[in-house]
Amino acid sequence: MTDSAPRMRHYSAPNNPSVIVAEIVGMVDIHGSTRLLDFMLSLIAQGHWKLVIDVDRADFVDGAGLDALTGVFNAANRHGGYVVLACSQELVLRQCRSAGVTKFFSIWPDSSEAAAFLSSSL
């Protein structure tokens, strides 16, 4: 059996260290969604309230993964923070649109543009 859990890492945006980019690689299904939520909530608990979630290299994001993303948005919002998504992958974008996630998140084609938006707008 292989581990299908998503791989995650985070780093400060190059032009603004107060913006954190979290890259998600792999499948974000019912099993990986808990790991994703825990990872993102730990960043918020550390005071990182301006977050770019880069799902461009996610193979798949199911309903549980989309629910986890919405939970991250709500948690950051409670702290006065903001979360945006970075993705140009049509399959993931279609999943986000059909689930109504776009009413919570602005979606940018890449993490650089998303980080620039957070840096200049908020």
Strand order of the largest sheet: 1-2-3-4-5
Mean pLDDT, nearest integer? 90
Globally, the shape reads globular
Main sheet overview = 5 strands, mixed
Q: Please give the alpha-carbon distance between the first and last residues.
A: 44 Å
Total domains: 1
Return the structural class: alpha/beta
What is the beta-strand fraction? Answer: 25-35%
**Which runs of at least 5 residues are low in confidence (pLDDT < 50)?**
none
Helix coverage percent: 40-55%
Please give the CATH class: Alpha Beta
CATH architecture: 2-Layer Sandwich
- Number of extended strands: 5
Q: Radius of gyration from the CA trace?
A: 13 Å
Q: What is the fold-level CATH name, i.e. the topology?
A: Transcription Regulator spoIIAA
Question: Please, could you describe this protein's structure?
Answer:
It is a single chain. By secondary structure, the chain is of the alpha/beta class. It has a single domain, classed as Transcription Regulator spoIIAA. 43% of the residues lie in helices and 32% in strands. It has helices at residues 30-45, 63-78, 90-99, 111-121; strands at 7-13, 16-28, 50-61, 82-86, 107-108. A 5-stranded mixed β-sheet has the order 1-2-3-4-5, sandwiched between helices. A hairpin with a 2-residue loop joins β1 (7-13) and β2 (16-28). α1 (30-45) packs parallel to α2 (63-78).
